[in-house]
Amino acid sequence: MVNSYKFSDDVTDAIRQKAIACLEEWDCIGKDKVLDVYPLAGGANNINLVVADGQKQWAVKLRDPGAEHFNNAALVDAIHGQVEASRLGVAPSIYAYSPTGDFISEFIVGETLRPATIREKDYAAQMVEAMRKLHKADPGRRRFDVFEDIRVFLRGVEVVNGSLPEGFDECWMAAQALEAVLVRSNPPMGFIHGDLVPQNFLMCEQGVKFVDFDYCGYSLTALDLAGATSQAEMTPNETEHFLKLYDPDLDDGQRARVGILRFVNALREVSWAAMAEPRMSDRATLLTGWSYKHHSDVNMELAKEFLAATPLNEVAARAAVVRPGALF
């Protein structure tokens, strides 16, 4: 006998068919079960589902067919990244996957973090501990470039006839002027998650774990620190505390590199939202209180504030100095 599936009403027929086909092919849940299947909030580029048999739960991620070309996501490399992170104890285990990047994984019971939660509950030390473990992972074959990510998203915005907020073009010109500084200074590199928005952190009994490795790869270690601190909306003092937890010998070069990458990452989030909303807003199950527009507005404000307050020549000169032994 085969399993029977009870989908919630908000799962479309197309997603039902794909989910059943994947689950039957993977054959890692067992037979003769009645399985409840319903959406899991989050993953604004993908469809996430929970599969439950009354005793155990699994998480299933189904890919948007055009994601790899449209979003600069590396779907198969994401499997490698999550497997590596799981080996280090900072991600859910993957049980089976398809060549196109769909997969079924361990379902982690925990709190999906949001900016206010991170800051109110002082999760910084546990986040940093998990990040330092992650950055020691085998980087695999993928090289990740945040500037190229933005360029891919901007091409996507044109394809969907999307629009970018006022002030984006000026900020993007400034960001590109800083790109060469980061390349020439040869700052520390390692395996990074590449998309450390708060909802990709899970706080569970075993500590912090990461999900959504679509943008992982070998890149600037400072980028994960920039993403985590900016997307958690940390204040300057909170950011300073976070960076010192990661590297107690924090210096001005590190501060400058993280500052630049917070700016660049904010533009990345804005361009991603402008590209993704027309394409995915009717399919993805978003977290309560989250919207593409709010996400874009917050990040556009971060970028404008940086540009207005920062002498670019000075921050570029500081960022170019890499202390021997610096961790990012």
UniProtKB/TrEMBL annotation:
Gene Ontology biological process terms in this record: phosphatidylethanolamine biosynthetic process
Family matches, as Pfam families: APH
Domain Aminoglycoside phosphotransferase stretches: 39-238
Example of a GO cellular component annotation carried by this entry: cytoplasm
GO molecular function: ethanolamine kinase activity
SUPFAM superfamilies in the record: Protein kinase-like (PK-like)
Gene3D superfamilies, per database record: 3.90.1200.10, Phosphorylase Kinase, domain 1
Entry-linked InterPro entries: Aminoglycoside_PTrfase (IPR002575), Kinase-like_dom_sf (IPR011009)
Protein name per its UniProtKB record: Aminoglycoside phosphotransferase domain-containing protein
Organism: Mesorhizobium hungaricum
Biological classification of the source: Bacteria, Pseudomonadati, Pseudomonadota, Alphaproteobacteria, Hyphomicrobiales
